[in-house]
Q: What sequence folds into this?
């Protein structure tokens, strides 16, 4: 898949809807921060340094063994992409918002199925990211570790025996590892247990935030949980800790759904089917309302109601209806109202293939 | 059509959606109040008097010429019907709520297509009602007048040269005529002109009220306009006056729709199609919300948007989703919540035959 396909197709490997506990866990992500020895961190380095980093990483990523592992990787200089295209990479979670903002001496390397992305000259020289569907933190960690090792065959990382991997921001020093999961938690939101759970998780050194939306609002009931600490723990501890907490949340979410479904089945079914009715017929829809309906439809699949619909289709809808994707589709900038019309059109088109009744 | 068909089928002649100005006017109705000479008004009469009235009217209605005009009429003693069945006749506008309340010595005579109904021993000995689709007041008046004449061949009406037809309530003395139209006025409601128009109409001796809903609320944007005065005017004046006012309202409603459609087309289309989405997918729906959506769908037809849908289907939906019809369908009394589920089921079934996209 070329970068042009990547920015035109809403689908990615991590959206397949497969993997363990896929009724609650959408995706698992591992990110490693790495820097090259003897070169200043990106915010201090010269243009020549930046070019050297890009060159070195590009060569390292073309390692035969690495290509065998993840497929023929594609290198892209961010300056080759339009601002909308960079924003689409952000919406697909392939690069960070920070990376998309500044195009000077920045690049990204992508695996053909988009399960691996390496940002070059973001906050650190390298940010290696592996993204898999479902709760597959250990697998994903193994994959990231393997890629890290293969890159290290060629690259000389900045590493201190005492502190571990050195990074631009002190919060990443040590393992340089951030592990995260994206969860769909409508049961805990409807039963109003989410606040308490967020509080408890924060006590464990993990961060919870709504994936979309601002402040305490989590549009679409999508939450991301990630580790905060990278120093003083070994990688496997970080991964195991997040996995164990996630397993508990998965169980709590399932119990909540069971109780709600048992006690308010008709209300819940009504809510799920009304979401479909709105998505299939609305002529204008905001991104926030679309996410709310997508969440209700996903819950419908999770409860075994909507046979014709798949998690993959749901994930695709989430990405398809994001602003940059809509602008790309329209071929021009649009007012919010125009985006709402185009969003409704795209949703109707996608759902027209599906039999719901 | 037997009375059992009448209470099992939501359709009536007046719901056909045909007739003049059917984009605004649902139906036209003429009602004549008549009493028999020498017999006390119903609230004062003896059981023997009541039986005599029923007998006399029944014989009169079997007049060959009348049967030739309206078809083989069917006589029904209200005591033969269950309370739900009587309520259905009210919901279909074939008898008055007052008539359905008390079954002692009361009867109704119906034409096969339900365009004519004669209530016996309601407030007056006879209430002759003719109901036609669209704005057809003159035609409907001619029909009522003809039936009145044919009944008078046999019946001796209580009539004073000075005061006209004598009736139980002084407001009906004179012509005994009440003419009314049922209108769908979403344009005037959305553009907030309805309040002013209601005020102006009241000044003209006409009454306006929401067809469904309480107080100033008119659920489904359905309004009834009728004359208040029956004394001191001849029949044709009453009919002409209502017709002329209705024509003005029809034009105002059409202008409002045109302006709204021109200035807010996307918002309006969104509203109309969302109504369809909700009606096609909801699993529970209140009578009030159903009427709101039915009104939006009707507006969709009026604006030329919904090709597969007809006024007849819309009118049928209004009647089908009324409480007594639902109870009849369920075969038992139901809680409001159960009615909402059954209502949603019936709506989905009705709309499943239609292609909207």
A:
């Amino acid at each position: 898949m070329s970068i042009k396909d990547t920015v035109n197709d809403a689908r990615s490997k991590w959206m397949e809807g497969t993997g363990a506990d896929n009724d609650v866990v959408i995706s698992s992500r591992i990110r490693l921060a790495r820097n090259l020895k003897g070169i200043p961190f990106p915010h201090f380095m010269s243009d020549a340094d930046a070019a050297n980093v890009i060159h070195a990483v590009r060569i390292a990523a073309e390692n035969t063994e690495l290509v065998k592992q993840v497929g023929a990787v594609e290198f892209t200089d961010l300056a080759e992409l339009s601002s909308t295209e960079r924003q689409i990479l952000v919406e697909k979670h392939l690069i960070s918002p920070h990376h998309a903002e500044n195009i000077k001496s920045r690049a990204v390397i992508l695996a053909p199925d988009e399960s691996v992305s390496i940002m070059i000259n973001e906050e650190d020289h390298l940010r290696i990211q592996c993204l898999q569907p479902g709760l597959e933190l250990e697998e994903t960690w193994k994959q990231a570790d393997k890629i890290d090792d293969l890159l290290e065959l060629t690259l000389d990382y900045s590493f201190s025996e005492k502190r571990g991997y050195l990074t631009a921001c002190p919060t990443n020093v040590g393992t340089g590892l951030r592990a995260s999961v994206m969860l769909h938690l409508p049961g805990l939101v409807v039963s109003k247990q989410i606040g308490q759970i967020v509080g408890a998780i924060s006590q464990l050194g993990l961060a919870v935030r709504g994936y979309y939306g601002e402040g305490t609002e989590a549009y679409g009931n999508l939450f991301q949980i990630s580790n905060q600490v990278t120093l003083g723990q070994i990688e496997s501890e970080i991964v195991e800790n997040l996995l164990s907490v996630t397993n508990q949340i998965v169980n709590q979410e399932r119990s909540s759904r069971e109780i709600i479904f048992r006690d308010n089945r008709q209300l819940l079914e009504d809510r799920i089917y009304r979401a479909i009715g709105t998505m299939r017929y609305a002529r204008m829809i905001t991104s926030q309302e679309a996410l709310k309906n997508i969440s209700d439809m996903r819950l419908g699949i999770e409860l075994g109601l909507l046979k014709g619909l798949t998690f993959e289709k749901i994930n695709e809808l989430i990405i398809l209806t994001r602003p940059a994707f809509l602008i790309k589709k329209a071929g021009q900038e649009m007012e919010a109202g125009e985006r709402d019309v185009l969003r409704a059109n795209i949703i109707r088109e996608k759902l027209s293939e599906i039999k719901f009744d």
